[in-house]
Design brief:
By secondary structure, the chain is an alpha+beta fold. Among the domains are: 208 residues, FAD/NAD(P)-binding domain; 116 residues, Glutaredoxin (3-Layer(aba) Sandwich). 28% of the residues lie in helices and 28% in strands.
């Protein structure tokens, strides 16, 4: 395995150096963290020539974001780089909450089987970035430029002008659209004079990554007011390579410089793990945090994603996960606009949908923070009472909040959805991320989301051979200007057609409340956008036009 902390990527002088004119590109992405890499890979997969600029020449320092959620892993699968992350990551789904020295509550994030990916994996951010970079290097449409620092951004009537500084000199370039994924201190946001607003929490936390061989369960352990760290909170997570993440709440008055020193860190670790614990410190960081976002994520031809657009507290692992989901939402829309298959107003739906998701994450993150770090005597008394009751009373367990863990947003109010006209049960409403389930195809096991891929797809559930009329309708939908890939799903007990996939364990029928004839239209980011009890091609075409904002311009291109 490569040492991803020591990788240095070569600077290659770009062709624009010395050209004297700004070379035009369809898309420039600024910032090669997980969000920027995911966005650039996704755009390249959609056939869009993309340039990715990063001011550094290495991967992130220290473990940073370590918790990658099931939905994010499904996105990485769609991008073609999920397997190495699963192989390297530490999978987990059980969390335990302690109050003082007593276990008061535990939870299982994925109690039901039949999912390809675990609830979460723990994986150091530099591994996630490394796997994404290695995959990106294989894509002909993607040009990654290390040590290329953006020093100016200006919008024009039909694009964006960008100034870039490199070790070999400065140059200019332009693009149709710019995607800013350059972090909480976004230089693009600063160059454009834009603000990010919200609440900053007056507290400090210590992260200590330690290397330790220990026979501990692979679970998330969170303590309120533990004996080894009184009146504060603490967290323990396992990572790959025998690295363990320890978090200690310090309080606002803590000296961030002094607290990083080994003589302060080592006693805290020993107090948690025991005096005989054998460990080495790998990385230490002190952080403060806030819950903030930009008012809008789209500003003309510049679109913001990830921490550049919104930041949350680390409780609940909502930062990197929500950022990758931003990229997932944006790439297919930008690709359709650039190909002339959708109007620019489709990009407004990125803003609307991901602002909604950001507000949902900020709300959950703020509630977690307020429970973990009560700022008044009354809130502290309430919290401790809840924790004292949680061991014996189920109602109190529902109030315990050690960080509501990241979950994808259901975009129920999106204008891209077609409202239900038929009765359905279950959670696969328009706007919901499509649920995965095991299937069989060609006699071999597979997974539904792998078959859906990153195009518009139509799932038709059948209990026998479809009629000639239905087959013809599916062929016509597949030939639309924006094609819909048809997927026949054979319900349990149905003789398979040559082109059908089998609902291997009956989970698809249950999760999608599917009956013979049920049809689902799924977006390229694998969110449901419409469903009916029977296939009606005209309604499907109308739903497709709505999902791409083509109703606004009268006809599908």
């Amino acid at each position: 395995m490569k040492d991803y902390q020591k990788l240095v990527f070569p600077f290659r002088p770009p062709a624009e150096l010395g050209a004297g004119v700004a070379v035009r590109h369809p898309v420039i992405v600024v910032g090669a963290g997980p969000v920027g890499l995911a966005a650039a890979i996704d755009l390249a997969r959609h056939g869009i020539r993309t340039v990715l600029l990063d001011e550094d020449d290495s991967l992130s320092t220290g473990s940073r974001a370590i918790c990658f959620a099931k939905r994010t892993l499904e996105i990485f699968d769609r991008l073609g780089c999920g397997d190495p992350m699963i192989e390297k990551g530490v999978s987990w789904q059980v969390g335990k909450v302690f109050f003082q020295d007593r276990l008061v509550y535990q939870f299982d994030l994925l109690p039901e089987g039949g999912h390809r990916r675990p609830a979460f994996i723990n994986l150091q951010q530099y591994y996630a970035e490394g796997f994404l970079v290695e995959h990106a290097a294989k894509l002909a449409n993607l040009d990654i430029r290390w040590k290329n620092q953006v020093t100016g951004v200006a919008q024009t009537a039909d694009g964006v002008e960008v100034e870039v500084a490199t070790p070999a000199g400065a140059y200019r370039m332009s693009c149709d659209y710019l995607v800013a994924t350059d972090g909480a201190g976004s230089s693009v946001r600063a160059w454009m004079g834009l603000e990010i607003k919200g609440q900053v929490f007056r507290d400090r936390f210590l992260i200590a990554d330690i290397k330790m061989t220990a026979d501990r369960p692979i679970e998330r352990w969170f303590w309120f007011d533990p004996p080894f760290h009184r009146n504060q909170s603490a967290l323990l997570h396992r990572q790959p390579d025998d690295i363990w993440r320890l978090d200690f709440q310090l309080g606002w008055e803590a000296d961030p410089v002094a607290e990083k020193q080994p003589e302060r860190v080592i006693p805290r670790v020993r107090a948690m793990l025991g005096p005989d614990a054998d460990f080495q410190i790998e990385w230490v960081s002190i952080y403060t945090f806030g819950c903030r976002r930009m008012e809008r994520f789209r500003h003309g031809r510049v679109l913001f994603a990830g921490d550049a657009a919104h930041v949350v507290s680390p409780f609940g692992a909502r930062g990197a996960n929500s950022g990758v989901q931003d990229a997932d939402n944006l790439a297919w829309k930008l690709a359709l606009v650039l190909r002339g298959c959708a109007p620019e107003s489709l990009l407004d739906s990125y803003d609307a949908e991901r602002v909604f998701a950001a507000d949902e994450n900020i709300l959950n993150s703020t509630r977690s923070t307020e429970f973990i770090t009560p700022k008044s005597k009354v809130s502290r008394v309430f919290r401790d009472a809840v924790l004292s009751l949680a061991g014996d009373y189920p109602f109190a367990r529902r109030l315990v909040n050690s960080g509501r863990l990241s979950a994808p947003s259901t975009l129920a109010d999106s204008r891209l959805n077609t409202p239900d006209r038929d009765p359905f049960a279950g959670s696969m409403i328009p706007g919901a991320p499509a649920a995965d389930a095991p299937i069989r195809a060609g006699g071999r096991p597979d997974w539904l989301l792998a078959r859906i891929g990153d195009r518009f797809s139509g799932l038709l559930f059948v209990d026998g051979a479809p009629s000639a009329e239905i087959c013809a309708a599916l062929r016509e939908l597949a030939r639309e200007a924006i094609p819909i890939r048809p997927l026949l799903v054979a319900l349990p007990g149905t003789a398979l057609q040559d082109s059908a996939i089998e609902d291997a364990e009956g989970l698809l029928a249950r999760r999608y409340d599917a009956l013979p004839g049920t049809f689902y239209l799924v977006r390229p980011d694998q969110h449901v956008c419409a469903r009916w009890r029977q296939l009606d091609p005209d309604r499907v075409r109308t739903a497709l036009r709505r999902a791409t904002c083509n109703l606004e311009r009268g006809a599908t291109p």
